[in-house]
Backbone:
C-alpha cells in the first residue's frame, strides 16, 4: 500500500509511470528495505554514481548538454527529454518529487542519490563553461553538489552572511567560513552564497557591521579542489549517511565566470531553488512517514493486547488515522505546489513552499513518533527503522530553513504581502 496521494499524482501523469518504475527497480536492487542503524549502511555516494550510470541523476536537468535552455517543442527540448530518460520537460519537478518520496520510503539518506540536487543552481544560472563542468561531474559521473549558505553566526538570516568575494577585475578572492552544512566530505563542488565587494569596500566595510547587511547576496560555483578550500566535520544526531561540518575559504582565487547569474542575483537564485528544494525534502520525510504508518498498521493488526488486536483499540486506530490524514494532506499540498512550479516557473509562491516544508516535516515527525510508540520497546531500538527516521526527520525540521521561521514566512506574506488582509478564498457575491 502506498499513499493514495502518490497514486493520484501518477494517475494524473501516466507519462511518469515508467520513470517511477525505474526508480523503484533501482531502490529494490540496492536499498531493498528500510535502513536501520544496526545494519550496514548503504554506500550512498557509490549508489549515486550507479544512479548516474542508470540515467537517474539528470532527469530534472534545467538545460541541455551545451547549456541551452530547452524551449517548448524545439530540438533543444527534445534533446533535454531524451537526456532526461523520457521525463517530459514540463514534468521534471513532479518527477523529482516522486523520486524523493520513493527514496524517503527506504531511508532519508537516500535523498541525495537521484537528480541534480543543488547542482541545479549551477546548471541553471552558470556560464556555459560552468554548466559543462557541473553537468559532467554531477550528472554524468554522479558526483555531488552541495550548498553553502549558513555561517556559524547566521544560518536563518541571509542578509547577515559575511563571506565575501573581493572583485579584483579578472578574478574574485573568496574568504569566510560556512557551517554547519551538509556534504562537506562528499561534495565535489558547492554553490556558495556570499557578498561580492570591491577591494576599496573590503578595506572600509566592517564584516560584522550594518553596511555589510546592505550588500546584496551573490552565488558562486566553487569546486572543492580549488586551493584554499578547507573542511572540518562535526557529529550530527541524524542524517549520518552524509557528512556535516564547516567549510573555510582562505583567500580562494576564482575566475569571474564562477559567478551564477550577475553579482547581486543570489537572493533570487536562493528563493527560486529552495522553493522547489524544500518541497523535495518535505517529500523525503513524507515517504518515510508513509512507510512508518504502513509498517505500524501491519504490526498493530498482528499484535494482540488482551483478547483483541492492537489495531482494534480505538485510540490506536484514531492516532494512526490522524497521522495518515496529516501525511496525505501534506503530500497533496507538496505535489500541488510542484505542479504550480512546473506551470509558473519563477513566479513560484515562496511563502507557500516554505510553509509546506514546515508542515510536512512536522507531520512526518509526529507520524514516526506515533509509529515508534506503537512498536513498543522494539521501536526504541536500532533494529527497527523508527528511531533513525525520527532523528533524520528531526534534522530536516531545521535544515533548509528552521520550521518556525518558515511558518513565519507564510504569515508575513499574508500580513504584509501585496494584498494584506485579502481573504484566502475569493467569495462569490450573493
Ligand atoms: C542536518 C542539517 C543539514 C544542514 N545542511 C546545510 C547545508 O547543506 N547548507 C547550508 O547552508 N546550511 C545547512 N544547514 C544549516 C541550516 O540551514 C541552519 O541550521 C538553519 O538555517 C538555522 O540556522 P542556525 O543554525 O544558525 O540557527 P539560528 O538562526 O540561530 O536559529 C535558531 C533557532 O531559532 C529559531 N528561529 C530563527 N529564526 C527564526 C525566525 N525568523 N522565526 C522564528 N524562529 C526563528 C528557530 O527555531 C531556529 O532553529 C543544515 C542544518 C542541519 C541541521
Residues:
Amino acid at each position: 500500500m502506498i499513499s493514495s496521494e502518490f497514486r493520484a499524482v501518477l494517475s494524473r501523469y501516466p507519462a511518469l509511470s515508467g520513470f517511477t518504475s525505474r526508480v523503484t527497480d533501482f531502490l529494490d536492487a540496492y536499498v531493498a528495505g528500510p535502513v536501520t542503524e544496526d545494519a550496514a549502511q548503504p554506500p550512498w555516494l557509490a549508489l549515486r554514481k550507479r544512479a548516474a550510470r542508470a540515467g537517474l541523476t539528470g532527469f530534472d536537468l534545467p538545460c541541455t548538454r551545451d547549456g541551452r535552455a530547452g524551449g517548448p517543442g524545439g530540438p533543444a527540448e527534445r534533446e533535454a527529454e531524451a537526456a532526461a530518460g523520457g521525463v517530459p520537460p514540463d514534468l521534471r519537478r513532479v518527477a523529482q518529487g516522486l523520486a524523493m518520496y520513493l527514496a524517503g520510503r527506504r531511508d532519508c539518506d537516500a535523498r541525495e542519490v537521484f537528480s541534480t540536487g543543488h547542482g541545479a543552481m549551477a546548471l541553471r544560472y552558470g556560464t556555459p563553461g560552468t554548466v559543462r563542468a557541473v553537468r559532467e561531474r554531477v550528472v554524468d559521473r554522479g558526483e555531488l553538489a552541495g550548498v553553502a549558505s549558513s555561517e556559524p553566526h547566521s544560518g536563518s538570516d541571509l542578509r547577515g552572511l559575511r563571506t565575501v568575494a573581493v572583485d579584483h577585475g579578472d578574478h574574485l578572492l573568496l574568504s569566510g567560513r560556512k557551517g554547519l552544512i551538509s556534504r562537506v566530505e562528499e561534495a565535489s563542488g558547492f554553490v556558495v552564497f556570499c557578498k561580492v565587494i570591491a577591494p576599496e569596500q573590503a578595506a572600509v566595510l566592517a564584516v560584522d557591521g550594518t553596511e555589510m547587511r546592505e550588500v546584496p547576496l551573490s552565488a558562486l560555483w566553487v569546486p572543492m579542489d580549488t586551493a584554499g578550500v578547507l573542511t572540518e566535520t562535526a557529529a550530527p544526531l541524524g542524517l549520518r549517511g552524509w557528512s556535516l561540518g564547516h567549510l573555510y575559504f582562505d583567500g580562494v582565487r576564482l575566475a569571474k565566470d564562477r559567478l551564477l547569474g550577475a553579482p547581486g542575483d543570489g537572493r533570487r537564485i536562493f528563493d527560486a531553488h529552495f522553493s522547489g528544494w524544500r518541497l523535495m525534502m518535505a517529500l523525503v520525510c513524507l515517504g518515510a512517514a508513509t512507510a512508518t504508518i504502513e509498517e505500524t498498521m501491519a504490526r498493530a493488526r498482528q499484535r494482540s493486547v488482551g483478547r483483541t488486536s492492537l489495531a482494534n483499540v480505538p485510540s490506536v486506530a484514531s492516532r494512526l488515522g490522524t497521522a495518515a490524514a496529516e501525511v496525505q494532506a501534506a503530500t497533496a499540498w507538496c505535489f500541488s505546489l510542484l505542479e504550480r512550479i512546473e506551470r509558473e516557473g519563477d513566479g513560484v509562491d515562496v511563502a507557500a513552499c516554505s510553509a509546506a516544508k514546515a508542515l510536512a516535516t512536522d507531520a512526518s515527525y509526529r507520524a514516526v513518533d506515533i509509529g515508534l510508540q506503537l512498536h513498543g520497546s522494539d521501536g526504541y531500538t536500532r533494529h527497527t527503522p523508527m528511531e533513525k527516521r525520527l532523528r533524520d526527520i528531526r534534522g530536516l525540521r531545521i535544515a533548509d530553513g528552521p520550521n518556525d521561521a518558515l511558518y513565519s514566512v507564510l504569515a508575513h506574506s499574508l500580513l504584509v504581502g501585496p494584498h494584506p488582509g485579502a481573504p484566502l478564498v475569493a467569495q462569490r457575491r450573493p
About this structure: The chain has 15 helices and ten strands. The pocket of flavin-adenine dinucleotide is lined by residues 146-150, 155-156, 180-182, 236, 239, 244, 395, 398-399, 401-402, 404-405, 408 (CB under 6 Å). The chain has a mean pLDDT of 92. The first strand starts at residue 144 and ends at 148.
